[in-house]
Amino acid sequence: MNPHRDLLTDIVTLARLIRTEADRRARAHGMTRAQWTILTKLERQPGLLQKELAEILEVEPITVARLIDRLEARGMVERRADPGDRRCWRLHLTEAAQPLLGEIDVQLTDMAQILCQDLSDATLTQSAASLAQMRERAQAQRVAAPMPAEPACREVA
Predict the structure, then answer these.
(1) Is 80 exceeded by the pLDDT of residue 49?
(2) Rounded mean pLDDT of the chain?
(3) What is the DSSP annotation of 62-121?
(4) Residue 46: left if φ>0, alpha if ψ -120 to 50, beta else—which one?
(5) Which one in 21, 75, 105, 108 has a CA-CA gap of 20 to 30 Å to 97?
(6) DSSP one-letter string for 80-96
(7) How far apart are CA 74 and CA 97, in angstroms?
(8) C-alpha distances out from residue 82 to 45, 47, 94, Å
(9) pLDDT over 50 at 13, yes or no
């Protein structure tokens, strides 16, 4: 047994379970988890560019563009011209998104309560601090030693 490696495995497994449950709950509201994530990011950071949102979500800009198209069609997001660059669009929530943001908050709060029940405030505080420290180290490692790009073609031996 390797407690460090086991912890990483547990974190990955928990993250997958949380994503799966969030997917299920989003589908119950005719949405996707990715759409919910975009709405919550724009609530916290109105006026993001699609490119900035793609970087935050770690997906391709075209993926964000398609998701924004769907949210715009539902009247929840609008694209506004960037005053400094006519080629760019800033993303903003509309009033129509507000009720859904309330429901997203209810669902996330419910998930957190289920997962954290019976954990003391001290345990939660220490866990959050430990995870934040691990996240910072992972981000620093990513910057310090980025993975080399894969070749376009691989030779087969």
Answers:
(1) yes
(2) 91
(3) HHHHHHHHHHHHTTSEEEEEETTEEEEEEEEE-GGGHHHHHHHHHHHHHHHHHHHTT--H
(4) beta
(5) 21
(6) EEETTEEEEEEEEE-GG
(7) 9
(8) 15, 9, 17
(9) yes
Indicate the residue type of 44. Answer: R
> In terms of Cα–Cα distance, which of 88, 77, 68 is closest to 46?
77
- What's the Cα-to-Cα distance from 149 to each of 137, 138, 143, 152, 153, rounded to whole Å? 22, 19, 14, 9, 12
Place of tokens 């620093």: 140
Which SS3 state, helix, strand or coil, does residue 49 take? strand
Check: CB of residue 33 under 8 Å from CB of residue 26: yes
The residue whose two tokens read 């669902």 is 107
Token reading at 126: 């220490």
Taking a C-beta distance cutoff of 8 angstroms, is the pair 71, 35 a contact?
yes
Structure tokens at 47: 């006026």
